[in-house]
């Protein structure tokens, strides 16, 4: 199988996709990314919404209905999940190589 032209993903994109396995609005995504990365990755609001636009264009996330009309809620799509799994497998392979070298 050929590797997707979109790989490797940036750390931010990878974490946003993971955060959106469950639906969330922009601020919640920012909080989840920071939590998932133990505070190492913090996304500014402008960066967040640029990333959302890009991920929507790629059809890796979609807007979903929300009870709160003031907030747009997003969720990962099947295509987004496929790219997330592909990147996770790529990262696992890289870790396996490093482990075999006792790094």
Give the gist of this structure:
The chain has 103 residues and is mainly alpha-helical.
Helices and strands in order, then pairings?
Layout: H1 11-19, E1 24-25, H2 26-36, H3 45-57, E2 61-64, E3 73-76, H4 78-100
Antiparallel strand pairs: 1-3, 2-3
Helix pairs in contact: 1-2, 2-3
Structure description:
The protein has one domain (11-100): Orthogonal Bundle (Arc Repressor Mutant, subunit A). It is mainly alpha-helical and 103 residues long. The protein has helices at residues 11-19, 26-36, 45-57, 78-100, and strands spanning 24-25, 61-64, 73-76. The chain is globular.
Q: What do the pLDDT scores average to?
A: 95
- CATH class, named Mainly Alpha
- CATH fold category name: Arc Repressor Mutant, subunit A
| Fourth-tier CATH superfamily name | Winged helix-like DNA-binding domain superfamily/Winged helix DNA-binding domain
Helical fraction: 40-55%
- The secondary structure category is mainly alpha
Low-pLDDT segments: none
- How many domains? The number is 1
The ordered string of helix (H) and strand (E) elements is: HEHHEEH
Count of DSSP strands: 3
What is Rg? 15 Å
Strand order across the biggest sheet? 1-3-2
Strand proportion? 5-15%
Mass-distribution shape: globular
Distance between the termini: 28 Å
CATH architectural type: Orthogonal Bundle
Query: For the report, how would you describe the main beta sheet?
Result: 3 strands, antiparallel
Question: How many helix segments?
Answer: 4
């Amino acid at each position: 199988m050929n590797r997707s032209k979109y790989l490797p993903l940036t750390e931010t994109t990878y974490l946003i996709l993971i955060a959106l396995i469950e639906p969330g609005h922009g601020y919640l995504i920012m909080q989840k990314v920071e939590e998932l990365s133990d505070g190492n990755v913090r996304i500014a609001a402008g960066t967040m919404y640029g990333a959302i636009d890009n991920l929507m264009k790629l059809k890796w996330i979609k807007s979903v209905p929300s009870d709160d009309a003031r907030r747009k809620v997003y969720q990962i799509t099947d295509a987004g999940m496929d790219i997330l799994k592909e990147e996770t497998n790529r990262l696992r392979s890289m870790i396996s190589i490093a482990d075999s070298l006792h790094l």
